[in-house]
Amino acid sequence: MKKNLKIRTKLLSKNRTFNERLTQLIQENNIPIEIEYSIELEALEEIDIVIIDKNYYSTLGLSKINNKTKYIMYLLDQEDYNFQFIKGLYENKVFDIFHSHFIPKSLERKLWALVKLISEDDTDQLLDIILDSIEDSIAITNDQGILEYVNKGFLKTSGYELNEVIDKNPRVLKSDGHTAGFYKELWRTITRGDIWHGNFINLSKSGNLVYEKATVYPIDLSSRKYLKIGHNITKERFLENKVRLSMSLAKSVLSTSAPNAFQNSHIKFNYFVKYMNELGGDFIWFNQIGKKKYFTALIDVTGHDLSSTLILMTIISFIKEYKAVEALGTLTERINNYLTDFNKKSDIVKLISGIFCLINLENSYLEYINAGHPSGLVFDKETLKLTELRRNTLLLGVRDNLSYKSIVLPINGTFDLLLYSDGLLEHYIDNYEEITPKIYQDIFYDGKTLKFSKIKNELMSKDYIEDDLSLAHIRFGSIGGTDVN
Amino acid sequence: MIYQIQQEKIISSMINRINQELNLDNIDQSILILDFSKVNFMDSEGISWIVDILNTLDKKGIGLKIINVKKEVYKIFEITMLDTIIDIKLGISL
């Protein structure tokens, strides 16, 4: 919106109420119309619109006007609304008519239509109308940083009137959200002719913070100008902050559920989880549920957002309540039924893949259920012979009322049980169509030494990962109580 | 009805777009066949999306079949055992 965009209008009327209402309408809606109140008919050639009150000029008077000005609007009273009279007006090139007790919205639309018609003869004004119809905030400054042009979007976002910002420095919008270095870097970038991208934290006239994702383009005309296009992201930023707060809270609650490393003379448990965005869908659990009975599980909830964490927290409560007397199948069934029920009622679908293991060193067996998860690995510590805990049931949350049966393996010796997320496997193998025991061994062992610490250090120090990475290691011995160290 | 997924990756950021293009509301045939020949990768959100489609079609009594699945993507269906409840045909490999 430029200061000089004005449609010249002459109002031939002494109807004071009408004149005041019309002036108010134009001002309130920033219609670029400049009104002159007069009953003189001089210099009509310089006038774009003439508004005529019929109380001063009858249809006969129109012949003196209609060839001298671009558009005529005619002000009528209720009693004038008859067909012949109105026909006469249109025959005398009256563009539009309206009632002296006009409906503001209707008249505003008519005036804007006229402004557009008149402006279309002028490329600059046409461009102005186009830019004003864009919701984004657009501004042009000169090489001194003085605002020469702003569109309606700018005025709406900032809350300022046109005359409060044009020819002014945009520092009026500055908040305390940026350092001096921020603006220096912006100017350094654009003055050397490069495009600047970034986010502004501005202050509106009413004192509210306005977040804007912006691009500033240097434009070389007769002198250097800078064009800023900014998209208001205040609402998104506000929601982001709320979500971040909720995630921080959820993360804190989740961390209180994490198990501790564990070690005694016949079993040792250690693990790590590296979350993709500090709040992931992986969870590892381990606890002692009998004299020489241990329960461990690794679960992976689809997605990496707050909803995944909330589902995870519910599932953790199921897992924590698991007791030795209960069949593994019953626990898995309960989780599956909860998830399928959730998925039926919810707009989002959450699924879980995972491995649930019961290590019974009293009776020397390992019992497991693998629900749609990559194989758990059991390596014989002496020979590194591998037994895979292969998937034996569909991932959880897809079909309800399925029955789950566990698989039992005998334990005779000392073993390393490794449970990991698919993200960890994908980190080490590009294509895991056919993974041989040798490939698994090379990932997790240097010779006969397990690389748990090395893998943990390597992965936990990564700045960027594409999925949650988790690994649990449980070393356990035969009933004789082998030293696991 | 056969619908070819145009995206190479079925990941969370792509799912809205795929849904708009696929428009499940307009399917009035007895089976939807998804052609996966362009799909190279699918993450866990992609799996959720497949199950969501399966559930939606189930309610309407429409079957789901997935064809031309590359080996790398087929492996995901195998591990999750979704291949036990959806008719999935292995196809082109990279």
Keywords:
heterodimer, A: 485 residues, alpha+beta, Rossmann fold, Beta-Lactamase, Phosphatase 2c, domain 1, six-stranded antiparallel β-sheet, 13 helices, 31% helix, disordered C terminus, B: alpha/beta, Transcription Regulator spoIIAA, two-stranded parallel sheet, 3 helices, 40% helix, globular
Descriptive overview:
- The complex is a heterodimer of chains A (485) and B (94).
- Helices cover 31% and strands 29% of the residues of chain A.
- By secondary structure, chain A is of the alpha+beta class.
- In chain A, the strands form 5 sheets. Chain A has a 6-stranded antiparallel sheet with strand order 11-12-23-20-17-18. In chain A, strands 2-1-3-4-5 form a 5-stranded parallel sheet, with helices on both faces.
- In chain A, helix 8 (234-257) runs parallel beside helix 9 (306-320) and helix 9 (306-320) runs antiparallel to helix 10.
- The longest helix of chain A is centred in the middle third of the chain and has 24 residues, at 234-257.
- The radius of gyration of chain A is 38 Å and the shape is elongated.
- Chain B is of the alpha/beta class.
- Chain B has helices at 12-22, 44-60, 71-80, and strands spanning 2-4, 9-10, 31-35, 41-42, 63-69, 87-90.
- In chain B, the strands form 2 sheets. Chain B has a 4-stranded parallel sheet with strand order 1-3-5-6. A two-stranded parallel sheet of chain B has the order 2-4.
- Classes of the chains: A alpha+beta (485), B alpha/beta (94).
- The A-B interface holds A 281, 300, 302-303, 343-344, 348-351, 353, 372-374, 391, 393-395, 397-399, 422, 431-433, 467 and B 12, 43-45, 47-49, 51-52, 54-55, 71-72, 75, 79-82, 84-85.
